[in-house]
Amino acid sequence: MTDSFTEKSNTYVSWLEESGVTISPKLRLEDKRSEGQGRCVVAIEDISEDELLFEIPRSLLLNCETSQLTTDFPKAVKQFEKYSDEPLSWEPLILCMFYEIYILQQKSKWWPYFCVLPEKEELNGLVLWLDEELDNLKPSYILSSVGKEQVKNMYNTLLKFIEESEYETLKNNIEKLDWNTFLRIGSVILAYSFDVGKEITGQNTESTETKNAEEFSNGDDEEEEEEEEEEEDIEIEMTKSMVPLADTLNADTKKCNSNLLHSEKTLKMIAIKPITKGEQVYNTYGELSNAELLRRYGFVEWDGSYYDCGEVSKPHIHRVLKKTFQVETDILNKLDDLIDKNEKILDLFDEFSIVQETFLFESDGEIPFKFLFYVQVYTLLLQNPRISKLGPIALDKYLNRSVDETSRALQENKITEKALEVVKLALENRMKEYEINLDDIEKSFIPVSADKDIKTKRKQMAEFILVSEFKALRECSKAILEKFDSIRDVEILANMKDAKNEERRPKKRVRR
């Protein structure tokens, strides 16, 4: 006798095939709940690179264009989109899914699909965490991006639209759209939806297949330039969509072995590398750290994401600068404004400012260049005892000389002793906030199975995030000493003084 989970999986696969989805006979759905991965797709035979895994007709996608809500109430979505002063994000799709799941129910053509989507209790995006559970993530900066207040505003906007709308079917079912239902639908969309594109050229609306970069490379520079010029005329319109089967794949930055290609009438999942028998088929959400994967999608990669990182905030750096140079906050704010608008810096960084609220330190020890530049410029500025008294013109000239010397030093992998001191202190002080010891660092994290209670699972995920961030900061702290040579500040300051004298030296007149 099959259990409910298996029965729903079998019904789901049958529905996919009846709905026109082509599935490779080398694949099957498997239950990986014991490994904390739920329902997934596994190869039962070896699969070659570029082999078709499955193909989904666009008619099976669920979005604001295909939903029965748009058929029954053609103006509803457009009216809702104009309802808010702010641009709406997922609210229209939430409305469509509410109509399909909670009003149409079994009458919806997607019902077998809805039966395999997770319930709210199975989801772990940070917006679902209780405040005491979020406390376990301190001092991670990810807490500033949870967005509970924005989600509450989205919910109120949707309720207000339904209450004031002309659609009695929606109004008569509004009690079904309680807070928990809204959270479940919104979290499912956040974790499972895709941005599906259509290519629009001039007046002719046509979708073409998205290709890997390798497919464009043929060694002919002229042909590549022509293709780039043609691509510039193409505008890609994205539609947030639920994509059955494609969203059944688990995601992993290190194990990704498939890619979803968009064509005019279908979406195709293609193997991007050989997949061996017994191996799971993985997609990826992009270049995201585990903290971001947890915030958005409610899971972590237990062997680490390629893009794990730690963060150091600008206020954190300012605290070190204030203590090191005995300078007041208003001076730092004034200098920040000047650094932010400095033309030399903007030119060096392609018009991007180096004044950032946070700097990311990656787990491979890659130190953010903007961070080093920011700190080095600052340490040169603050060693001028008259920095707070300089007029606008003199201050601008001194900043430009600091930028020139900073650029020259960092290009030679050199950093001044004072700047190195600030860098080390900023990283060390940030790491102390984590209160992590050596045992925590060496600890092996085992994925929590689905039968464990949600509090245990969330506590372990929080601990894993903190250790991942700490490790990234530690790697960068070690790397700065390995990758850069320290030089005495007086050498750089002497160069700046020489440059100042050169600026003052009168130019000789050319005799005619």
UniProtKB/TrEMBL annotation:
Task: Keyword check for S-adenosyl-L-methionine, yes or no.
Answer: yes
Which parts of the chain are coiled coil? 417-444
Name the major location: nucleus
Chain residue ranges for the region called Disordered: 203-235
Key words, A-Z: Coiled coil, Methyltransferase, Nucleus, S-adenosyl-L-methionine, Transferase
* Pfam families, sorted: SET
What EC number(s) would the UniProt record show?
2.1.1.-
Q: Which InterPro entries match?
A: N-lys_methylase_SETD6 (IPR011383), SET_dom (IPR001214), SET_dom_sf (IPR046341), SETD3_SETD6_MTase (IPR050600)
Report the Gene3D superfamilies cross-referenced here. set domain protein methyltransferase, domain 1 (3.90.1410.10)
Acidic residues: which segments have biased composition? 217-235
**Cell location:** Nucleus
Q: What does this protein do?
A: S-adenosyl-L-methionine-dependent protein-lysine N-methyltransferase that monomethylates 60S ribosomal protein L42.
- Protein known as: Ribosomal lysine N-methyltransferase 4
Organism of provenance: Nakaseomyces bracarensis
Identify the taxonomic lineage of the organism of origin: Eukaryota, Fungi, Dikarya, Ascomycota, Saccharomycotina
